[in-house]
Design goal:
Pfam family, one: META
InterPro entries: DUF306_Meta_HslJ, DUF4377, HslJ-like_sf, Hsp_HslJ-like
CATH topology of the largest domain: Lipocalin
CATH class of the largest domain: Mainly Beta
Protein name: DUF4377 domain-containing protein
Distance between the termini: 78 Å
Organism: Kistimonas scapharcae
CATH architecture of the largest domain: Beta Barrel
Oligomer: single chain
Number of helices: 2
Shape: globular
Number of domains: 2
Helix content: 10-25%
Structural class: alpha+beta
Largest sheet: 9 strands, antiparallel
């Protein structure tokens, strides 16, 4: 009987210890709403960066009794519209609500009284190859599996624009704005026949400029 109680006590202590530390790493929403960008969180030491498709939010974070407590957050100042604005406000409210944190391996769940969001851990940015690319202010028609619009990119301003058929995770370009991005590139093991063998993830927006037509 004593050994059983000791085991139960040890399990409880282990659970509490897991909940008391910040879930460090890069996290991406597992099932974003249709037509929206996945929410992302980047938690390192006592800092958190959050993104829902428009502005990037940054602030201090700590754990208190299984809850994520986020301080006042600084934010970039892009004007958000429609779904992006609603998603950004929802993420702000979630982080301000001191959500309950549950982590099971590479899955992270943040829950408040009204909402619950599940995130999947992403590869460490330190392991990726660093690239710098320019992105044109407008997409161009292209044909993949079906007709679509592709980003126009180049690595140097002296080069012509080329079509990029993939996606840059965490990047939501606004029409009429030219960008220079710092990208992290990762190899994709065993990609499907019609998919890229490389995965691009936004590391930083280095420059952005409104371009007059």
């Amino acid at each position: 009987m004593n050994m059983t109680r000791l085991g139960i006590t040890a399990a409880i202590v282990t659970t509490l210890t897991a909940c008391s530390s910040l879930p460090e790493g890069r996290w991406q929403e597992s099932t974003p709403a249709a037509g929206t960008k996945a929410m992302t969180l980047d938690i390192q030491k006592d800092r958190i960066s959050a993104y829902a498709g428009c502005n990037r939010m940054m602030g201090k974070a700590q754990m208190e009794g299984g809850h994520l407590v986020v301080g006042n957050m600084a934010t970039t100042l892009m004007l958000c519209h429609g779904k992006n604005a609603k998603r950004e406000e929802a993420l702000k409210q979630l982080l301000a609500s001191k959500p309950v944190v549950e982590q099971h391996g590479d899955q992270l769940t943040l829950s408040s009284d009204d909402d619950s969001y599940t995130f999947i851990k992403q590869p460490s940015m330190e392991d990726g190859k660093t690239l710098f690319v320019y992105v044109a202010p407008e997409k161009a028609p292209c044909v993949g599996v079906a007709p679509m619009e592709c980003l126009q990119i180049r690595e140097d301003k002296s080069q012509p624009w080329t079509l990029y058929y993939g996606t840059i995770e965490g990047f939501a370009p606004e029409p009429g704005i030219a960008y220079r991005l710092r990208i992290k590139e990762f190899d994709v093991p065993n990609p499907p026949a019609d998919a890229s063998s490389k995965r691009w993830i936004l590391d930083m927006i280095v420059e952005q400029e409104v371009v007059t037509p």
